[in-house]
Amino acid sequence: MQNKKMISALTGLLMIILVLTGCGSGNNNAGNQPEKTKTANDTAVPQASDTAASDPKVTIEYWQYEFPAKVELINELIKEFQALHPNITIKQTNFPYDQYNQKVATLVPAGKGPDIINLYYGWLPKYVSSGYLQKLPEDAFPTAEIESQFYPLVNAAKIDGSYYAIPTAVRTLALFYNKDLLSKAQITDLPTTWEQLVETSKKLTETDAKGQFVTEGLAWEPGAQLHHWYRDGLLHQAGGQDLSEDRRKILWAETPAGLEAFQYLLDFAIKHKVGINGFYENDSNAFMTGHAALNIDGSFRIGSIKKDFPDLNYGIAPLPAYKSKSAPSSFWANAIPKNVEGDKLKAASAFLKFLTSKEVQEQWVEKIGELPAQKAVATQDKYVNDEKLGPFISQLNDSRAHFFIDETQEKTLFVDATNEVLLNNVPVEKAFQELVAKTQKLYDDYWAAIDKK
Question: Which of 49, 153, 331, 426 could disulfide-link to 167, CB 3.0 to 4.6 Å?
Fold first, then answer.
């Protein structure tokens, strides 16, 4: 009887051991383990079971400007991320666009800012020189990996040999066209060259008896996307260069291409008279309301049209080319402020890795309309063959993102130069030379301050 009790006790103990072993981390039964989802660069997105219970709890703050669709999507992504990382809590804070830089300048140096910040790539040099940001951790974001997996335009986030930010999505420009207006003008072939763009724009332009625009052939607004079109599109297509390799010298006037491209852009307004600044408030509004037949605009506009002008019958085509192809690109990127360290830095890096995963980039396309930042994601058939997205993606390998010293000031100088010609009858060549000189001074002042540090 005693032997039977002992056997029974040993059997019970053995069953307990087997149960405990089956629940442990050393279980070899792969079928019971959550499958890891692969990202575009074959790194696994960790599941909740990958987070050790002993990891410290940490709360980090994410900042971006108040763009409703992005705010909503980030809130959804935060929930997804926190399910994978239960010990990390993320709080999102938003500011109006025109207050964003001021908040950063005030709070980040005081150590009261975010742990992750979303910013326009054109602000990066100023943020870095002001000491707001730290380099991306090399172990989480190896330089070689970034440059092999992302489109070349991401190089604009590289300063003094190091990357300070990483994008989830990118933008480029293309030619938007109103199908109904082209049909009305009996135009069946889309323009693919500089010359064809001029001729098509002229055919599509309609004015009233007083010579006022009824329909712009080509929406013309230098302060919108046209200044980008010049730097990273027209200039290179004409055979010119934007900046020296060290990014210190403006090369627009080094060859005749710079002036040729500037003249070409201005001629749409002063010679061909197919569009004018401020018509129907701005270029995008003129196009979306059917008062501009053609417009140079970004992939981000697709979402706005879908939401606010769902009945607009429009198409998208690659930008017309000249001696070569080139398209302007830009992006908003995520960075880590300089004072973030320890567990918060580890958590911020994990969230940035999550934001560049294949799954997140695909959500960004569907809900925001911007293009995937990584080649392997963007070149999927479902995007390449898409009627609206395909023309943008086809240009990404030929795209460039200008290295802004101060995006706001550089845009202002460009718009001022066009106004000198249009409003004050300043010769195009003189306005161009002054534009180059003033832009160069911005760069000289920036690099002089950097060199003193």
Answer: 331
